[in-house]
């Protein structure tokens, strides 16, 4: 991929100027060996990793940083590292007035913590990728868990992204599967973006849509090659993940890469943390959830025409939300009260534009097609069903939308089917 050309940005037909302030993207063999040459005038660097990511390439990166290293943070956790207040505090405690750069070694969580802390401190950051596991490397959003809620903060992009293919291809297979799943989930979120344009008149950019879909097309058939850790396939996946991040940076939010499938993923993660229950890696949850969002689309297509149905009362709805979301229920309810969407009657819009809505719903791959892609990378929807069970999945389909302020097919499902 020609990142140099892409990073030049463009004046777009949508009326926006699309820019991304990343300076360096190096993806290839021996990429980590080039880090030192990209440090320029930076002199006081905080290097951050967890025990696993440091083991992957920490010594090499530390050598590249050399005498510019000011502090080293290696997160020590018995379980998963969570991007929460505690993790943020540990990093902030090592910043000094002289710190001029943060470098993270890792993937999703390390990336989000570095992005959040560096933005708060008005510092640049670099990310040295250790797994092609998610699409947030080049995005402006920092996906954090604050006060128990999954919150995506608008922050900034990294100044440099380094992806050494020899490190990436040796990442745990579940992380490679997760990255693949995150890309395949774009079928769902891009469909949601078109729906939001029809139903709510939301801003839409055909160029960014096409750019993101191009990443999907380049990745969707790589399943077997990824399973064999083929270097070229892993490199293509990493480029797609970074390219999608740039697409998000171009519009200033995650709309091109996150929709109903991500909301379901966030639900399983949040409820898992609240109840100390297991959940899949982010991208794996995303692609499994895409199978379910596609089932919803197919149910809506079969509906024939939108019809009014009796919706739960506010009291009944909030009681269910409190049961499901427990300690964060007040925040969930407050968000939806602020949005006011539960008080809207969307049926007239659905009725007026139903043919357009159905045409968009038909653009997404069938449920069978999606499961075919999953099987090619050794993912089986039966594992998803077994881990979460029908009741939790049903709760997710009805209430995952309440975690976000974004219109997706989950609102159509709630209004017409749930």
Can you give me a brief rundown of this structure?
This protein is of the alpha/beta class and 418 residues long. The protein is 54% helix and 12% strand.
Indicate the topology:
Blueprint: H1 3-6, E1 10-11, E2 17-18, E3 24-28, E4 45-50, H2 51-65, E5 69-75, H3 85-92, E6 101-106, H4 108-121, E7 125-129, E8 141-146, E9 149-154, E10 160-164, H5 165-168, H6 173-184, H7 186-200, H8 206-219, H9 223-227, H10 231-251, H11 260-275, H12 282-303, H13 314-325, H14 329-339, H15 347-352, H16 354-361, H17 367-376, H18 381-399, H19 409-416
Parallel strand pairs: 3-10, 4-5, 4-6, 6-7, 7-10
Antiparallel strand pairs: 1-2, 8-9
Helix pairs in contact: 3-4, 6-10, 6-12, 7-16, 8-10, 11-12, 11-18, 12-17, 12-19, 13-14
Description:
The protein contains 19 helices and 10 strands. It is of the alpha/beta class and 418 residues long. It folds into 2 domains: 3-170, 3-Layer(aba) Sandwich (Rossmann fold), CATH 3.40.50; 179-202 and 255-416, Up-down Bundle (Dehydroquinate synthase-like, alpha domain). Strand 4 (45-50), helix 2 (51-65) and strand 5 (69-75) form a beta-alpha-beta unit. Helix 11 (260-275) packs across helix 18 and helix 12 crosses helix 19. The longest helix has 22 residues, at 282-303. The two termini are 42 Å apart. 50% of the residues are buried.
